[in-house]
Each structure stands twice: as C-alpha cells, then as structure tokens.
Design brief:
It is built from nine helices and four strands. It starts with a helix and ends with a strand.
Length: 189
C-alpha cells in the first residue's frame, strides 16, 4: 500500500520543478536548431576532410614525377654519388659524452655535460685521431675543468671554447688537422 501511495503522489504532482525543466528543454526550439546546425557543421568538416585525403592520395610522388620527366635515373645516380663524396672529404669523429665539474665560481658546484664531434681535414688520417682519442678526451676535460660557469654560458664563451679545444688538439696531431668542433649536446647544471 505504501508503494501505491508513493506512485500516486509522484504522478499527481505535475507542478514539480524537475518535470518543468525537462519539458522546457525539450520544447525550446533554439536548442533543437543549434543541435541541427552542429550536425550539419560536423558533416561539412567530415566531407572536406574526406575530399582533402582523396586529393592527397591522387597527388603524384616526387620520385614518380622525376621518372616521368626523364630525369629520374640521372637524378638518382647524381644524388647517390654526391653524399659519398662529401663523406669521404669531410671525416667526422664522434667524441663520447663528457660530464665534467666546472671551476668553482661564486655559487654552488656546477658541471657541464658536453657531446662533441670533431671535423677532420681532407688529408687527416682517422687512425691517428682514433689512436689519440684518450689524449684528446684528457685535453677536453682539462680545458672544461678550468672554465667557470659564466665563461661557458655566454655565446662568445662557447665559440672561444671551440677554438681553444681545436687549437689544443691540433698541437699534438702530426698528420691531421681539426677543422672544426661541433657541439651536439651542451648542458650546464
């Protein structure tokens, strides 16, 4: 009986606020119009995306265009020969990562993490540089140990550091010469 009474009271209260809010939102034409406009906009976006992807699929590849124009075989031969010439002319030697304490400045202890690559001249022998790699690493560590954080954080300081490393290594190389030093990674903490 209690259940029947609760059902009757629920159905007899037509003026409840929850029922009014659901009726008002379902009868509001602005919400319906906005939902329809949203569906059309989503459909338009999907249509244009489909057309764009279809257009991209039909676009020819660069290698296909070169082959059609008759330059494909010659261009492939030229592009294959060129990188091998530049690699043989410019020999790069990767030095392992350095993690070195910097000279004590005003603040707390700081260190530098450096990853560098050496560019050798054309007449340099890789075997000499490989044989002297421990000496090269020792020289770079000694140079970095003498620097303060303020010295290496400046742009000119990094350029000066490159020149200092290059000249120090070239001082003990006999057959080869270091042309440049490239920073692959440079971090001061």
């Amino acid at each position: 009986m209690a259940e029947e009474g609760s059902e009757d009271t629920g159905s007899s209260s037509e003026g409840s606020p929850a029922k009014k809010s659901t009726e008002a939102s379902s009868k509001n034409p602005l919400v319906a119009v906005l939902l329809i406009l949203n569906m059309f906009a989503m459909g338009a976006v999907a249509f244009f995306q489909y057309k764009f992807m279809e257009m991209e699929a039909k676009r020819p590849d660069l290698t296909q265009l070169l082959k059609e124009s008759g330059l494909g075989a010659n261009a492939e031969i030229a592009s294959e020969e060129q990188p091998t010439d530049t690699v043989s002319k410019e020999t790069l030697i990767d030095l392992a990562t350095f993690t070195v304490n910097l000279a004590q400045g005003d603040g707390p202890r700081r260190y530098v993490r450096l990853n560098a690559v050496l560019k050798l001249s054309k007449d340099s022998e890789i075997s000499e540089v490989e044989a002297r790699k421990p000496q090269i690493r020792d020289t770079v560590i000694s140079i970095l140990n003498s620097k303060r954080p303020e010295d290496v954080l400046k742009k000119d300081g990094k350029l000066y550091l490159k020149e200092e490393i290059k000249s120090a290594i070239n001082a003990f190389l006999i057959d080869g010469k270091i042309i440049d030093v490239f920073y692959v990674g440079f971090q001061v903490n």
